[in-house]
Amino acid sequence: MHMETESSWHQWKHTLGRAVNLGKAVGLSDDTINNAAYRFGEFFANHFDPGNREQRLLKELWEQGDDHEKRTLAGMLSRMVDSGETR
Question: Consecutive sets of 10 residues in the chain, 87 residues long: mean pLDDT of each?
Fold first, then answer.
């Protein structure tokens, strides 16, 4: 299944950023947000074909990572979209 509704990298980052900001607004800790990002990463890697080359790279990195590396990647993505890099 392709992620056609979020095929643009910038749209995808914006959507992820909104989710992180919503989590913070309702009082979720960074650890809780990172754990959610990890679970979503697992789900998307297993059920969706990437819609663009950036998502393909993330999927390939995810597939090569061990559990610790995947959690690190999820945390980095959460920080990236939370830091205003959603242009």
Answer: 58 85 93 91 87 90 95 92 64
d(CA 31, CA 45): 21
Amino acid identity for residue 13 in this structure:
K
Rg over CA atoms, the chain? 12
At residue 45, the pLDDT reads 87
Give whole-number Cα distances, 37 to 55, 75, in Å.
15, 7
Tell me phi and psi for residue 49, to 5 degrees.
-85, 135
Distance CA 43, CA 87 (A): 25
The candidate with the shortest Cα–Cα distance to 33, out of 22, 43, 44, is 22
